[in-house]
Amino acid sequence: MKEKNLELERLVFFSDAVVAIAITILVFNLKLIGDEGKHITFTDLWQTWPKVLAFFLSFFIIALFWKLHHQFFFYIRTIDEMLLWNNICWLLFLVLLPFSTTLIATHFTDSAAMVAYCANVLLINVFQNNIWDYAAKRPELLTPGIDERLTKFYRRVCNVAMINSVISLAIAFFFPVVGFIILVVRLPALMFSERLFKAMK
Amino acid sequence: MKEKNLELERLVFFSDAVVAIAITILVFNLKLIGDEGKHITFTDLWQTWPKVLAFFLSFFIIALFWKLHHQFFFYIRTIDEMLLWNNICWLLFLVLLPFSTTLIATHFTDSAAMVAYCANVLLINVFQNNIWDYAAKRPELLTPGIDERLTKFYRRVCNVAMINSVISLAIAFFFPVVGFIILVVRLPALMFSERLFKAMK
Amino acid sequence: MKEKNLELERLVFFSDAVVAIAITILVFNLKLIGDEGKHITFTDLWQTWPKVLAFFLSFFIIALFWKLHHQFFFYIRTIDEMLLWNNICWLLFLVLLPFSTTLIATHFTDSAAMVAYCANVLLINVFQNNIWDYAAKRPELLTPGIDERLTKFYRRVCNVAMINSVISLAIAFFFPVVGFIILVVRLPALMFSERLFKAMK
Amino acid sequence: MKEKNLELERLVFFSDAVVAIAITILVFNLKLIGDEGKHITFTDLWQTWPKVLAFFLSFFIIALFWKLHHQFFFYIRTIDEMLLWNNICWLLFLVLLPFSTTLIATHFTDSAAMVAYCANVLLINVFQNNIWDYAAKRPELLTPGIDERLTKFYRRVCNVAMINSVISLAIAFFFPVVGFIILVVRLPALMFSERLFKAMK
């Protein structure tokens, strides 16, 4: 079992490194409009607000995904191949998020951009949900004696996040900015839900 | 021996970090055709499909290389200088893959681009093969009591991957897209082969 | 408690990885003025001095933040949610610093650029201060038996750094270059303050 | 002492992460000459040879620096502030190397570019030398019972590398390409010197 843990640690480490890079390269989306030659004013800075907004949203979305991922892997003690590939697909779409962020950062009001962004967030959600769904059904993968209410709670968190993504995706086709706002709303909701659980316990 | 393990851990950590960065910067290949000013449509997104395909293939190729690398180093307990340099050369060509991916992402149907890509994949294969070949012949480098069938199995996996790369390289000179498809085929094949071994055991 | 430490270690690891990436991508600010085609001379290199200066300042500012962060987490033995989010916000603004560095690297004498840079440094300071303030007030989060003078000393270091940032921010509105120089001064001051404390002890 | 080790581990980890990123972003120097629109041929690929050469040299130079750094920190058991700042300066110039590599990749035959590159390599050497020089003189920083011949050997390796950098720097003013070749020569020399020591022992 010690050996399995070693493999698990490496997967977690590798995931952490990829997430750390993805969250950092978000900053490349911030660029001033206009060329290097001329002076910049506070107005120039101010006009970058859609990019800054997109940067902030993506940063906190990735941070929340990372936090949840860690909470999952705090209770997962062994991995098998299925879990590994679910985790790799989770990473795949997480790595894509900086690109989707570029899309909305430069085309904030275009529905094609916002749809791509929401679809991306949804896909990360789907694989994060897969990870917990798969692990929670297999007691041999989890630390023994895990509280069943916790298992259910995490499943519900994933579901709430998925529903939020689906709604924002559907709306983004017609009202891109509203889709964005719905995604923003998930952040405090997810943070709040956590406290709710602790109060319950 | 504990000291040697420390050195080994650092090499594995360093390799993991490099692979994590290489797999993440693949996303820089995704760029929209056209300039920032105008609106983007779903057609614009759709036209990026060669880039998205190239991104997906490279992502899974690197993920598979990483997985195999980990399985190797799960059984390797000590490193010597030869193994270290083989590993560094493995990293060298792995780091090159994002560049080769750019080539095929922007010139999907040019044989020069596809040949460069296939040659790059082949070179990673060669050094991965070297690592296992070198270690498997030296029992003092491996964990004691390793199953000989496993040693052979990994060697065969390397060989199959190398043959796949050579074929795709040869074909890419004449039919770049067919070369690409042959590389795609390796992915399920390598995943499947693993299960085959487990069934045997 | 061992479990909590595991979570703490991962947070520290994740923070380290993000800081390592942020400090490395600073180098992307260094670019020659002029196009690839023509030859470059020593004059061309010399003319990059504002970029090199900005690179050096940001590198040492991040290095100092990292060092202090480590010293904090050397004494913090448990994290709670509040500390986690303070740390994530600390990372958020640290990740922004390469962008602010680009602003001053390309517009060294524009007050809008320098104000953005100083505000960014201030915001990192604020959250670093929050981390220690929050932890220092809760003995259950710290290693038992920590010297109270140390707690106070670190608080004072944070305060000095914040005051320095506020002053440089205020001055940057009118004299950008003076604001920059005040930020430069903090570096030896912070290094020196450390020695002062050791002498006291 | 356990606590000190923890700090040391983090410094080594942070250094490893920075080096891993620096070595990976070297690949951004590889770009095709010409625009995206037209087809690429084998001639286009072939014309990138100065960039590929620069990439290879920098990759192996960083790999060798990393290897030596690890060997140093294998024997260093504690760090103090002086060692920390020497290490941070070492990282500073290591992070600069991808920029210097861009200079020679795009202006292979310009002496200004090659001088900057050689100076950069020299500066990394200087701080690596400082690290070992400082630690080797303080037995309290090293693992007890370290072979004195080893201490001397590492000092000599640093000196040889520094002399090589100085010579290449001096020559690069007049014959850039010769300066480059002298840097290339160091690679097998440094690898060979290692074996020499082992033969001696």
TrEMBL record, chains A, B, C, D:
Belongs to the TMEM175 family. It is found in: Membrane. It catalyses: K(+)(in) = K(+)(out). Keywords: Ion channel, Ion transport, Membrane, Potassium, Potassium channel, Potassium transport, Transmembrane, Transmembrane helix, Transport. It comes from the Bacteria. The keyword RNA-binding does not apply. The chain crosses the membrane at residues 12-33, 53-76, 88-108, 114-136, 157-185. This is TMEM175 family protein. The keyword Iron-sulfur does not apply. It comes from Spirosoma flavum.
